[in-house]
Amino acid sequence: MEHNAEDILVQSINEAVSAGDDQRLLELLNEYVGLLRDKGEAEASLKISDNILALLDKMELQGTVSYGTSLLNVATAYRAAGKFKEAGGLYDEAEAVYRENLPGDSMLIASLHNNRGLLFQEQGLYDKAAEELGKALDISEANGADYETAVTKANLSNTYVALGDFKKAEVLAREAAEMFKHIEDTDTHYASALYALGMIYNLTGRNDEAVALLREALAIMEKEHGRTESYRRIADELKKAEGAGSAPTLRGMDICKAFYEEKFVPVIMEKFPAYKGKIAAGLVGRGSDCYGYDDEASRDHDWGPGFQIYLSDETYAEIGEALSQAYDELPKEFMGYKVAPVVSGHKRRGVFTVNDFYKNLLGKYPITDEDYLSIPDYALSTSVNGCVFADDEGAFSLIREKLSEGYPEFVQYLKIAQYSAEFSQCAQYNFPRMLNRGDELTAKVMLYDGLKAAMKLAHVIENKYPPHDKWLFKSLDELENGADLKPLLQAVHDLTSVDRIGQFFSQLMYEKGFISDTDDYLDHHTEELSMKSELSRLTVEQLAKKVVRLEFEAFDKVQNEGGRASCQDDFCTFDIMRESQYLTWTKEMLMQYLYDFEIEFRKGHNLITEKYGRMMESTAPARYAEIKDNFPVISPEKKQIIETIVAIQTGMTEDFYNRHPDLLKQARSIHTSEDTEYNTSNETYLRGEISTYSDKMLELYGRFIVAKAQAGENLTEEIISHTVKL
What is the per-residue pLDDT across 431-445, written as a single tens digit (0 to 9) for each? Predict the structure, then answer.
């Protein structure tokens, strides 16, 4: 059918040339260039494009709608041929013509936005592509143009796949496919929608669903245009989907466990019955089968029927050699699988003492908290993978459970800082620098080093040990946020997509409480992470005392208009009052406040000075009006949060004093309405204090207060209880 259409077009073009009908010839050439473009015949389409441009000059159509439409078709041919710069110039020229001659909601302008969106898509400028396609979609929907709307949604879906926003991509692709079926136009654009859905399903693990869609898309593409580049792209995606289910259903772990239970448990019962409860067994450590990642390619070495026996030093001394001999006498084949040769240099199967087994994996055992800094991540990962088949005494599992708790808190902070810095230095900094220098090989090395750091960072944020590099991507499936990260990593190809990974991690680390803001250049957070690493080693009591000392240092520097206040020389009272408050806080709150306070103090911003200054809004309004510009502006949203907290906490104070009215005689008045120049109420003091908090600190404090209120706990009572004890 295609050849017939092309033959008819060529014949009609020759007839128009013979008749000297330039207008008819222009229409036919525009149609022909589109056909050649769709067939992937770039060189031929460019020759026809040259004929169109020459004919436009001959006909002197510059500035007309016909001229603009021809430029649009030629630009699209240039785009398909990879001549992006030339295509961009022609699209701009066509737009100028259209803007001069057509209303803003013209479908020709929608077509322009659609095609320019595809140009940006092919250049990797996906944000710009989404913007252009969004404009095209608005116009098409406003005109009720179902076919054009469906085409644009299909194109936009592919853009969102590249952007890593699979939710939007899936919705758009589904809507496009349904629209094409509704209008009974299942052409190459329908195939494009199916292709987008297939990619989404592949990337999100729904491979079986992807296969059916991609097969349909492939059939349409071959029928319409043959085996073009578009056909090959769909075919490649189909191979991925079909290959995803090719791994053997029976894993090495299943084979090894069955081998132990069927072949070795009877040996224990026959030859070592008195030691049954003292023999632990499992498969843990190095090897894809220990992770459950093994496939056909894993079977070339260190794979096959086998397991490990773990004994105490005492039991090993008694039966270790005899057990080893019994192990060596086991069959070399089981369930049709042979024991593969050992070529790794590591003893992965057989009989071990518990301590020697862990020492073999970690390099040393027992280990201290400091050792977590020097033991490789992948080694720690091998110590907690796999499966324990039997452990009646529990000695092996006790160590395993301790290791499974993850890094000590201070190490976790340092590891997050390390991998954040590595990601930034490699992917966010050196990758674009090398590209700008034209060194593409080094740029790729920097990019992949950055992605490796990103995958390790994902693990450490969840306090999981990153495995060996070859399993980093695979193991993301086991992380809470792995499903969201994997598409971003798969779609990475330029600085824009690298920055999306930075945004992902900054938001994640903020939500997890590791950092104070969402700056997407991750290296900017390493100072905070390092400082919090040191703070995390302190107890709540130690942190509270540290806060008090830092605050008193700042309090000592507050300049009062009436001269130095006597309370500035009374550390004992200051210590009791402030520590009473901080002993009620969580460790996370104290660490955050210490970080904020110290950073601001270094900048010359004294939060104590600001606190007392803000109180003057109520106690000395005229003076406050003179100094308020020295303080950071508080947004209306933040003010609302502050007032909500103040209302809840003031209610707690009222409740406490209603139950203990005698204590009110020596305390501050409760309400701001009671303020005077010489009397600052509890409410005003609280408002002034939390108004100095960073956004992150205020978020933590707000959640803290709300949790207290929901639990029926009274913070005022807790603070005064600490005061009495101190």
Answer: 999 999 999 999 999
